Amino acid sequence: MSDNKKEYGWNASMGISLYDKIRQDMKGAMLNKDTDVRDTMRLIMGEFPSLTVSMTLESGKKTTRVKTPAEITDDDLLDIIRKFVKSEKTILELKNETSSAYMELLNRYLPSMATLEEIEQWVRDNVDLSQFKAPMQAMGSVMKHFGKLADGNQVKEVLKNMGPA
After folding, report:
1. Could you count the other beta carbons within 10 Å of the beta carbon of residue 148?
2. In the chain, what percentage of residues exceed pLDDT 90?
3. CA–CA separation, 45 vs 109, rounded Å?
4. CA–CA gap between residue 122 and residue 144 (Å, rounded)
5. Taking the model in full, what pTM does it have?
């Protein structure tokens, strides 16, 4: 069964939307009787109704409606997966564990995070720390560049270690 797990996962270079890949992996997991993957895909798909679009009715009243499959973006789904990863991290911390099969599966659908070395290199190449009173003041511009691909705690650690320029 572990051989089949390699086919699960997603990245933007695959040429398929994350929505379609999740549905495809769900179908594959059902055919392969891979209950862990099937249940995880069901969990993600169960969050689809929480993706809504604001709209105004003819009466002027504001409301929301569920997004159609065509309106669901990869970013919407990545946010759902990140939410599950965050809650799983909390559970693992309580159990004093570092990882789980569920966590590893979820991470296969997320873009890879920037490493400490990549963050440090980008800061050296693009940020003039002498402009700031303290290196930590560069945090905003670093996070703006990396967005959700960098962990704020890692960026903080890199900037602390760089010290005054």
Report:
1. 13
2. 53
3. 13
4. 12
5. 0.75
